Amino acid sequence: MRSIVRIPTLPALIALGIMSLAPTKAQEPLVADLDLFVTLPAAYQLTPDDLEKRFAKGNWNRNPYFEWLTEDRTRAIFQKKDLGNLKVNLTLLRGAFTVEEAVVDFEDGQFLGVTISIFNRGDGGSISMDDYNKRFQAMGRHLGEQLQIRPTSREGKPTQGLLTKGYVWISARGKAVLERNAPDDTPVEYLRMRLAKRDAGGVYEAAMQDRAGASVKLSELPTNVTKGHDGDIYVSGIPMVDQGAKGYCVVASAQRLFEYYGIACDMHQLAQIAGSDPERGTSILATNEELGRIDHLFKTRFTCIAVRQGYQLVELVEGRYVGPEVPRAKYHEAIRKHIGEGIPLLWSLEVGLFPEDPPLREQTGGGHMRMIIGYNEGKNQILFSDSWGAGHELKRMDAKNAFEATHGLFLLKPTTR
Fold first, then answer.
1. Residue 35, exposed/middle/buried by CB under 10 A (0-12, 13-18, 19+)?
2. Within 13 Å and on the Cβ side, how many CA atoms surround 405?
């Protein structure tokens, strides 16, 4: 699959504050101090309104520090930026070091937890062991001080699905994990920390477990199916991420599925496991091979439902386009079946071939992966979601057009019943 090409128009670039009609000159970097998210118990008092006040957009047309990943302001993302006239650094521990990204979650209007990518290969390129050790030790000391407890060690066991090593802190004050890829003799691909309220569930609870696999049972997923009064039938409660400018649409979509299943694994970790190149994305056959390679590590099962061969969709047999044809009726039957079970589908397609609602706001084309999250039989529509942040949670396309645009349709579901 080719990476999607998203080319903002000139007015859009100006509106984003990335370009200006007037000559620009070098700007001093903006700094987002993230210490407020890792300082207890003050962090637990933060609200979405506090976030917007603390990191106000100033004279920029769009907030340069963070963006909401959801329209209900339950998830926000901070990302390091270097865009010519806009440079934003994210710092931790009174500016001791910079980090790549932070995702902040709110529940019922209050801070729930934060996930910070202290380093990842896709954004940072490489890291020296000296720099890694300094960051790991400083962050570990800080978490111990905040949670007022000694950590327990977590050893990686890749063959058993335990793909990270590090330390876990759990006390009455909250819970945290600091981890990197395992084993020790591999280069550092990512260094990640999570900190959350003691009773935080979902991905935060899963991150503390010394085992692989979903924390949500397969039998529980149908409760997430929502039936709208207008005929919409869709899966709700799917966490949102933003793949950014990288060709990470496959692993970003997989992360959203994993979070939905209660599996603590982000796109950077998945990219390392699957061998995804952040510059080129993933081909359709590589997608099939790589997702099939990692599914057992997380006690999930991966199935390729259909891939495109010329003018038709077919089944794959042993990684080859030799299976029987998948006609449109069977394609839509598979969608209805799995949505009814509360299981979204991974959908690779050629973007820009057909209209969609809401319309794409940018000049967009190329191969891309989305999630099919529902359907509307009365309106003959497919409901889908893009991993592009707020406003992309639920969108629509004519069902016939969706079939014609499809490169591949994939199922990835937990095996725990």
1. middle
2. 24
CA 244/CA 259 separation, integer angstroms: 18
Six token digits for residue 325: 């044809």
Domains of the chain in sequence order: 5-211 (no CATH), 219-414 (3.90.70.10)
DSSP 37: G
pTM here is: 0.79
Dmax over CA atoms of the chain, in Å, equals 62
Gap between the Cα atoms of 384 and 374, Å rounded: 7
Q: How many CB atoms lie within 10 A of CB 251?
A: 34
Q: Rounded CA gap, 254 and 259, in Å? A: 9
Q: How far apart are CA 123 and CA 187, in angstroms?
A: 15
Element (H, E) at 242: none
CA distances from 386 to 8, 69, 143, 368, 404 (A): 17, 11, 34, 9, 18
Mean pLDDT by 10 residues, the chain (417 residues): 41 39 58 97 97 94 94 94 89 95 96 95 81 94 97 77 83 96 76 95 85 77 95 95 73 88 78 60 64 72 89 80 86 97 95 92 76 97 93 95 95 84
